[in-house]
Amino acid sequence: MADSAKPGATPPAGKGFWLAVRKAAGRLQDWFAIQRTAVRVAVLVIAWLIPLSALYSISLNQKQAALAEQVKAMTVAGPAGEGVWTFNDQLPVVFGTGAMLNFLDTQPVERVTVIYQPLIWNLSERIVLVEVQGRQHAYYPSDLETRIFTDRAATAPWGGKLQFVPRSELGAGGRALLERLDQRFAGARPISEQGNWKAGISGFLSFALMFGLLVFLFLQLKGSFKSLKFIEPAQISGSIDDLVGMDDIKAEVAQIKDQYQRRALYAEYGIVKPFNVMFSGPAGTGKTKLASYLAKELNLPILFHSATNLETGFVGGGSNTLSRIIAMAKRRRRCIIFLDEAQDLFMKRGGRRKFDDDTANTLLSVLDGVRSRSDAEIIWIVASNFNAETMEMDEAMLRRFQMKVDFRLPNREERLAIVEHYLSLRADKVLPDLDLRHLVAVTEGRSPADLETIVNQAGISAVQAGDMIGADTLMQAAERVLVGNVNADTTDERERDRRIIAVHEWGHFLVDFEYERERTGGNWEQILADMKTIKISLKASPRNNALGFVFHKQGPNLLKTKGDIEHDVRVLLGGMANEELFFGEEGTSNGAHNDITRVTRLLHHAVGEMGMYRKTRLNYGALTGDGRDRSRNLDEETRSLMEAQSERLYGETKALLVRLMPLTEHLVERLLQAGEMSLDEALAEIRNFESGRVPRRVQQVG
């Protein structure tokens, strides 16, 4: 039940296209819903301009085509052998004198040839050749003359002698003639025709601006919408039945489902508050998956958003994003909003970061119990990893949630079921009858996401080795995931460091071993089952910058007794005590830094918080506020008690390890040779040594 990326299923091929269309349309509507009024108006205007301009262009094309047909109909056939789109270029051409219309009315016109060239829309260039007594008189009429010429053509005697010739249809001789006429009439072109190039540029700029605006809107839509999108139920793969274990948590989610589906009946009992649900618990326990499966079962779209993205560093940044989310949700009316990583929003307000308080206040108003009917069916699921015992929460925020679901880490049986589930997904690549007890034990306190990662890592290792997944592969994967990648090169050439590390780690191990041997009465099988240590290694771990490590499992007991705490302290002090025994007080290393830190915390918990070793059981740690700097508030009695118990337990640990120095020396040599030893191998070496099957060498105590 890991928090993972939002699952998406591939739709059937027949529905893929329409699903993509619906998604695109929904995204466009969401973007439109979160914009300001000015942006909406601008988009609507542009949306109307696009079809209007297209229709206008189509109508102009139709008019142009109709005009061309009319021109063809007005064309008269020339002399025999001449086509309708020709003129007699053999006749001499002279420039007409006087007004063209007067010349047409006073001369015996034989033919009137209009040579034209379309420019843009309804504009054109034209030259009129009037044939009279074997000569052609050339005119370049003005716009006014052209309009009068057109009007009189229907009734004038020369109207039946009109011939229209497109310039593009002229032969070589005709084009040469027109070039000479162009030079003659260059200064007489009408102003409207001289400005035709301006009209063309204006039209191009208009198109370019419209195209640029659309591109800008597309990029803005893509950029501002990157993390805000709803996932439809059909896109979610899997179901709640795929979540193994944690039936108590799934029962809580079933209650949410029932309350939503029968909200009318619940309203009759006075349950009319909005659906605000809080998921809390460690990371990787399945909060995101469970929310997605709930959305699928309720057939509701779901929006996933991280609350960390609301921390913009600017006042109003997070609240603006929330406003966008609300606008998108209201458009759908029924949906789920999943806000993850929201622990900062549950902190007490009034801090130094005003923008965080602004975001929290906006969320408070959104989650308020008084809402309009339009958003009363929106389910808000706010998830966080906070721990109510160690973090002070904002009470006003907590009151907004009528349902709280607390996620937890899986127990032993649930971890076994989860591992078996992930192995069953690749059953044909897994060896039969696997013994998973060690893996389940070593993953104590790990989340389902960690278990899934371990199984996946085992699969990767099996592929690389060309083998099946077995128990050894799983344990190696667990070590890789929980400890990190290790290497022996870092310590191979550092013999002194390797020996110190070996002595240190065997000190921890032997203190724990003697305790288990006494507790079990020397039952070696029980010791093997109960020992926390899985492996001791001299390989370096870059994850925590350690030159060696002990791979161990967590203890099965959640409650710690006074004796358990003292044993944990002895085990932690065993490493430093062994170093002092073998190398003297001056030879102790800083490798015990982490051990001493943990001892200090354990003893402070026992003395300062639990009141152990005191006459009265009081928690003085509760008087230090948030406890971030305990050393400044540590009273003298607590300090002296902690130091006294530390010295006592250190002395007991050192006395125990003195008796085991020959065994320690033997185990150190074997570990230096092997590089690492498992628990089975370590116990076998101890039994062989104690039975006298290996020679003993006693080292002088330093």
UniProtKB/TrEMBL annotation:
InterPro entries: AAA+_ATPase, ATPase_AAA_core, P-loop_NTPase, Peptidase_M41, Peptidase_M41-like. The chain crosses the membrane at residues 38-58, 199-219. One of its GO terms (biological process) is proteolysis. One of its GO terms (molecular function) is ATP-dependent peptidase activity. Residues 273-411 form the AAA+ ATPase domain. It comes from Azospira restricta. Keywords: Membrane, Transmembrane, Transmembrane helix. This is AAA family ATPase. The keyword DNA damage does not apply. Gene3D superfamilies: 1.10.8.60, P-loop containing nucleotide triphosphate hydrolases, Peptidase M41. Pfam families: AAA (PF00004), Peptidase_M41 (PF01434). SMART domains: AAA.
